[in-house]
Amino acid sequence: MTTGTLQNAPRDASRHHDLSRTLRVPVLAAPMFLVSNPDLVVAQCEAGVIGSFPALNARPQAQLDTWLTEIETRLGETQPPFAVNLIVHPSNVRLDADLDTIVAHQVPIVITSLHAPDRVVERVHAYGGRVLHDVTTVHHARKAAAAGVDGLILVCAGAGGHGGTLNPFALVAEVRRFFDGMLVLAGAMTDGASVLAARALGCDLAYMGTRFIATEEAGASSAHKAMVIAASARDIVYTPFFSGVPANYLKDSVRAAGLDPDALPAERSTVDYSKGQTRPKAWSDVWGAGQGVGNIDTVEPVRVLVDRLAREYRAAARRVQT
């Protein structure tokens, strides 16, 4: 194993593999913009997976403190781990205030995205928290490892929202050659068998987002949930058109916004909005979802979903042992 890129990584990497042992199913529920909320996070944690939400979902900024207090109060003395996602790109004007709030609450897990997480790592490690960083390439995985993150979230092909294009077999294998911290795998996972597959690849947790859109506690609209249930993999389009970063969206939501999902131009500026049309916004007008939608056919409580994931996970483990 090459260790040169790990000189700034946490010294005791072994401690980062223990989270999966505390869960009913080794799943980290992905933070979903405009979908994840305190009700969803608490339900996920109580059901036996790690719940999470983006800091930017709490609006205005002062509401982040309110949300964290509510989650901590509702989870009670057991305090199962939960996570908050921070966009660390310089364009995020809330970053400093959100990080201060996260540190004040000593949030157990912080998920960082879209920029090097160096200063977040320093402040979160100071109180004993863990930092997991989203990556889609080996290059960005190396940079995050050098920043001292506790884990990498490998966002592979088919993941909802800002997904990558690499096959998980390729990305996991390359990253494991130089990083021995926690690995979390994302990309079209909707059942317990896919969670077991992630573990078999050498990952500690599966990163599951789209499947939790179709739950009673999720903050998605009823139309968004219905569209997820009705869709299959062919109904997903991968494009940078709406946010500037390639992402997976539901084609029907693109059509509802007045655009052809199969003929999107490379640049937003090429579309003429001079006739009274409004430019559709990513996530609020055009909805994200991953390629695993074809395995989702009902809206149900989080508890029921996690119960089934646990059964599927055990059944898959029995199959590979025979």
Termini gap: 32 Å
Could you tell me the mean pLDDT? Answer: 91
Radius of gyration: 19 Å
* Total beta strands: 10
Assembly status? single chain
User: Low-confidence runs (pLDDT<50, min 5 residues)?
Assistant: 1-16
Query: How do the SSEs run, as a string of H and E?
Result: EHEHEHEHEHEHEHEHHEEHH
Instruction: Find the structural class using helix and strand composition.
Output: alpha/beta
Rough outline: globular
Helix content: 25-40%
Number of helices: 11
Query: Strand percentage, roughly?
Result: 5-15%
- Major beta sheet, strand line-up: 1-8-7-6-5-4-3-2
Short description:
This protein is α/β, with parallel strands linked by helices and 322 residues long. The chain contains eleven helices and ten strands. Strands 1-8-7-6-5-4-3-2 form an eight-stranded parallel β-sheet.
